[in-house]
Amino acid sequence: MESIGRYMNQASLRERRRDLRKFQTRAEGILWSKLRREQLGVKFRRQFNIDHFIVDFYCHALKLIIELDGWQHGSPGNQEYDQRRDAYLRAKGYTMLRYQNIQIKYELDAVVQDIMNNVERLLLLEKTPPNLP
């Protein structure tokens, strides 16, 4: 299934996405309040699925994924899963940003600034013509 340039919200995952939005973590709610309504100049969606993965936040225009990691991501099994998942999505052309929930609590301004820097970088890359020989 081709995923670049297409929305991938599958009906089979609709209930899971809805539950994730309904029962979001505190950190997800705080970050969403900074991302929603195009506050950073681009539209983000939350709990969006790409292929068989549900990502926390997604900007389709830039193929940018933002993931928030809580305590459960610290276990070796989950770290390995996250690495495989990230590698798969990067291979499909997506940019991945990961932050810890604790960063949202104590370093929110720095996280938002980092996201803004990445959005600006990706927008600039989008407008830069390829080098011709």
Report on the architecture of this protein.
- Helix content is 46%, strand content 19%.
- The radius of gyration is 15 Å and the shape is globular.
- The N terminus is likely disordered.
- The longest helix is centred in the last third of the chain and has 20 residues.
- It has 133 residues and is of the alpha+beta class.
- It holds the Pfam family DUF559.
- InterPro entries: DUF559, Endonuclease_DUF559_bact, Restrct_endonuc-II-like.
- This is DUF559 domain-containing protein.
Topology:
Layout: H1 14-22, H2 26-35, E1 45-50, E2 53-59, E3 64-69, H3 76-91, E4 95-100, H4 101-106, H5 108-127
Parallel strand pairs: 3-4
Antiparallel strand pairs: 1-2, 2-3
Protein name: DUF559 domain-containing protein
Domain DUF559: 13-119
InterPro entries: DUF559, Endonuclease_DUF559_bact, Restrct_endonuc-II-like
- C-alpha end-to-end distance: 33 Å
Level-2 CATH architecture: 3-Layer(aba) Sandwich
What proportion of the residues is helical, as a percent range? 40-55%
Strand order of the largest sheet: 1-2-3-4
Number of helices: 5
Protein structure class: alpha+beta
The whole-number mean of residue pLDDT values reads: 86
What spatial form do the alpha-carbon principal axes imply?
A: globular
- What count of structural domains? 1
Q: Spell the H/E element sequence.
A: HHEEEHEHH
Name of the CATH first level:
Alpha Beta
Largest sheet: 4 strands, mixed
Number of strands: 4
